[in-house]
Write a structure and sequence with these properties.
Two copies of one chain form a homodimer. With 130 residues, chain A is mainly α. The first copy, chain A, contains seven helices and three strands. In chain A, a hairpin with a 5-residue loop joins strand 2 and strand 3. In chain A, helix 1 crosses helix 2. The first copy, chain A, binds a DNA duplex (30 and 30 nucleotides) through helix 4 and helix 5.
Chain lengths: 130, 130
DNA sequence: ACAAGTACTTACCCTAAAGTAGGTGCCTAT
DNA sequence: ATAGGCACCTACTTTAGGGTAAGTACTTGT
């Protein structure tokens, strides 16, 4: 067991931090507003850059490319470019990225349940108004 | 079906936005760095203010109370204070908040899988170094 | 008398994240 | 000839999220 030498303390700290709060680790990778939204769209299938742009009209190009680059260095997203003109660039989830699909899916499920709940409340309120 | 009158367009927009991207709805509620971390600790059981503080040493009091208040108005967290001195305030998840447990749990699961993966990679790399 | 613990609140500051608005190079369609 | 689509890049500015440090009110412990 001589593997992991000097860096073992880092690893131990990481293990420690993880036991303290695993969610912190996740936030370091996909914290912020846009990343989970981008990941959601990629979870629906591989997308070209321009497809992502159209799928998320509210995001600026700067934010989109910036987060895509970061997701790439964090090995959550893979960028594949065909050397043609006009450019043809595809983004897809890596296997780590696909590991986040349950998270994204749980988020989507919750959102639907919440809004259905509001809907039901509203009908109920209107009904009891007379 | 005359329930929902003037406000129906808002509701329709919400439904539309939700179909476009349910994750956006989630981000409006729990986006940012700290909220999921707070929710994780509350998912482990009801906590007093000071317990949360100790559980999340990296957070400042300002951030903690600020996000707790916001989670309260968003009906994800319930604040219960006993009128005693010294104060005794407990925070717990509401039913909406409990609905997020699968999200938080999926995050925690992913974090553990990721770090185990890194660990395995590291051992593998060291082994093939000689 | 003083520190420490409870659960906050307030004022000030700073930085990192995000928005604005341009440009690049190359091609196709009108 | 000009506009538009592709996938970006860059400089500048704004905003909001977060950090620092102090104070509040009341009680218990030493």
């Amino acid at each position: 067991m001589t593997a992991i030498k000097e860096s073992s303390t880092i690893q131990q700290n990481k293990q420690f931090a993880l036991e303290q709060c695993p969610v912190t680790y996740v936030m370091e990778k996909i914290g912020g507003y846009w990343k989970p939204i981008i990941l959601y769209h990629l979870s629906q299938g591989d997308k070209r850059y321009s497809e992502l742009r159209r799928a998320i009209p509210a995001i600026t190009e700067k934010m989109l490319i910036q987060h895509l680059k970061q997701l790439e260095v964090d090995d959550l997203v893979l960028r594949e470019s065909k050397p043609v003109v006009p450019p043809f660039v595809t983004y897809r989830l890596t296997s780590s990225g696909r590991g986040l699909i349950p998270v994204i899916q749980a988020m989507a499920d919750w959102a639907f349940r919440e809004v259905r709940g509001e809907f039901a409340d509203r009908i109920h309120a209107s009904a009891s108004e007379g």
